[in-house]
Amino acid sequence: MIKRTFSGTVRARKPGTVVGVKRVGVRCDVGPARGVGHVMRCLALAEEVRRRGVELVFVCDAHTVPWAAEQIAARGIDVQPAVWTADEHVELFARLGLDAVVFDSYDLDASVYAAVRASGLPTVAIVDGDFRGAQADVLVDQNLAAELDRPVLPRGSVRLAGLPYVMIRDEILDLRPAVAPADRPNVVPTVFAFFGGTDAFGAGPYVARALAATGLRFEATVVAPGEELARRIADVELQPHQALNVIGPTDQLAARVRAADLTISASGTSTWELLCLGATAGLVCVVDNQVMGYERAVGTGAAAGLGLLSALQADVGAADQTLKRLLTDPVERGRLARAGWELVDGRGRERVADALLGLI
């Protein structure tokens, strides 16, 4: 168990809070350009600590992405608007009467972490390789092979790294197969494609075009979190034996993934959810900070790489060979699904929750 002795002022309790109940704040990024990946993995941890009787409050601008706001509200979790300066964070966390804070941000200044930690509040920071100035009592890097890296840690910090710490939401865990997935019959393949809660980089239309360019039969559903994206996807020219349906963000994501023969997504936090579900995953690297994770995921043999989004934008046929194999080879799809299922066991959030609550 991780322990630390704290000193400082007694923090106020929010009115109505039951004395003796632990209270954890989650400060995470969210927005039309940033997407919802930070919120999703924080919700996974939130579900686990709530199961253990801990209260949660999120501090983020969830209203900027209505679907993310709905996901937080559906779990009965309070939300406070994001603050940005070190002093604002210290004041807010004291006013909320928090016992610990979880950070998951690319945007916060390093001074925020230092000030909150110096105030005596136990802290956990979720990172992806580069700490980006984050310091905390516990640093969590849930990325594949992160345990092989040897970063210099802030004084007094502990690092939890690798796929054993991948945090998976209830929606995914409830539909995780009890046994490794079997091969599916070689019928017209169904494809499900989604790129986060906002598809911030507009990948959907290019993936739809790449699918159509194979000339092969398929029945695809593509998530479009906006009218312009939906229009561009719907405008993709198909051949008579190809079908494509466009939908908005859905709270039935896991069920659609389980039902599909092939799921195409951005290489990011959703990758580990796909593997946990035993999905046949085709990954697109949509932004530079995903390159290392993308290469490592594809390198395991548990996911197929469709390449960089920039390559698809330049040449719709850039992923043609890989897509044709995935659309026509049920044995290869089954192999990928089983490899992913074995790689992510779904218990990472329990391990992170143990570390977080061990600080309090």
Task: Describe the fold and architecture.
This protein is globular. The protein folds into two domains: 23-168 and 346-359, Rossmann fold; 172-343, Glycogen Phosphorylase B (Rossmann fold, 3-Layer(aba) Sandwich), CATH 3.40.50.2000. It has 14 helices and 13 strands. Helix content is 37%, strand content 18%. Helix 1 packs across helix 14 and helix 6 (203-213) packs parallel to helix 7. The model is unreliable at 1-18 (pLDDT under 50). The strands form two sheets. Strands 3-2-1-4-5-6-7 form a seven-stranded parallel beta sheet, sandwiched between helices. It is of the alpha/beta class and 360 residues long.
Integer tally of domains: 2
Shape field:
globular
Total DSSP helices = 14
Summarize the helix and strand pattern as letters: EHEHEHEHEEEHEHEHEHEHEHEHHHH
Shape-level CATH architecture of the largest domain: 3-Layer(aba) Sandwich
Q: Helical residue percent?
A: 25-40%
CATH superfamily of the largest domain: Glycogen Phosphorylase B
CATH topology of the largest domain: Rossmann fold
DSSP strand tally: 13
Separation of the first and last Cα atoms? 11 Å
Structure class = alpha/beta
The amount of beta strand, in percent, is 15-25%
State the low-pLDDT regions, or none: 1-18
